[in-house]
Amino acid sequence: MKRIFVKFTFLFVCVSFINTLQADEKVYKLSMATTWTETTSPLFDAAKNMAKIANTMSNGRLDIKIDAANKHKSPFGVLDMVKGGQYDMAHSTSYYWKGKDINTLPFTSMPFGLTSPEQYAWFYYGGGMELMQKVYEKHGVLSFPGGSTGVQMGGWFRKEINSLDDLKGLKMRIPGFAGEIMAKLGVQVTNNAPGELYTSLERNTIDALEWVGPSMDISMGFHKIAPYYYTGWHEPASEMQFIINTKKFEKLPNDLKEILVVAMRISAYDMYIQNYDMNASAWQKMKTEYPNIKVKTFPKPVMDAMKKANLELRTEMSKDNPLLKEVLDSQDAYMKKVREWTKMSDFLYLKDNLE
């Protein structure tokens, strides 16, 4: 009897071990929608790289299929599609959802706010991730940093901006919160579709526009028409995002959850440094082929007016949105702490070593 029991015990252990191996070999298929087309580099690259890293690290157990915007036809509907289960994941950016939920706005970037290294530090060590999950939990998704374009340029202008009067009546494509600030200063703000921007600028339908930076501006050709290229103020740390359906994520084995999170984090940072290199290369080409481009900074009275409008709008938005105020206050407190080090390190180093 004892021998039979031992045999059955051994058989049970073997079957359990085989089942474990089979479970470990199960392939989990996930679908991901992006806001970008496949040619939108480096944004689409971040999604593609994440899927590849997750697949490699999991030895093929995570298989993520990506649909670009031209496939699913709803670039600004990916949050709803993930929430509703049409897709398991998405790659987009958080401030696109401000019309649906104003609390999502600060997780991309805020005017005169944190730089990309500062914002990454806030996300991972300053409470930013916890606040982001607090905002997104009611949408049934988890949100993770998805890659930064760094400081975005302030835009291409046909004419030089010397005073606030030069902004009044100016027709400019500049979306989001920055657009509201510009509108407050008298700019006629539009939000033309990307495919219409060059034609709109060429035909004088608009006088100026903001896009991203040299890495993505060069292919659009704005520098061929508008020679004044203004430095940034409105998006100092433009962060993309990965979102994943919470229920779908919770069904993954613990090791695959960890692999997915690590893959998102690695691909996000890789996009940041890829874009940095692309900006440097694109600017070298731009300034060589179009030496008439003039890099400008907005005059101090204009910048002061932008900062004032920014504070007024933030106060107004936060009045009836305690969660938004909590997020903005957290960013402000972290910036107060981290900016002192940024000045001591990066700023003074650059200031003392610029040619």
The CATH architecture of the domain at 2-147 and 237-277 comes to 3-Layer(aba) Sandwich
Structural class: alpha/beta
Relevant CATH superfamily of the domain at 2-147 and 237-277: Bacterial extracellular solute-binding protein, family 7
The CATH class label of the domain at 2-147 and 237-277 is Alpha Beta
CATH topology of the domain at 2-147 and 237-277: D-Maltodextrin-Binding Protein, domain 2
Descriptors:
single chain; 355 residues; alpha/beta; D-Maltodextrin-Binding Protein, domain 2; 5-stranded mixed beta sheet
3D architecture notes:
There is one protein chain. This protein is α/β, with parallel strands linked by helices. It has a domain of 187 residues: 3-Layer(aba) Sandwich (D-Maltodextrin-Binding Protein, domain 2), CATH 3.40.190.170. Helices cover 51% and strands 14% of the residues. Strands 7-6-8-5-9-11 form a 6-stranded mixed beta sheet, covered by helices on one side. A 5-stranded mixed beta sheet has the order 2-1-3-10-4. Helix 7 links the parallel strand 6 and strand 7. Helix 2 runs antiparallel to helix 11 and helix 5 packs across helix 6. The longest helix is centred in the last third of the chain and has 36 residues. The chain is globular, with a radius of gyration of 24 Å. The N terminus is likely disordered.
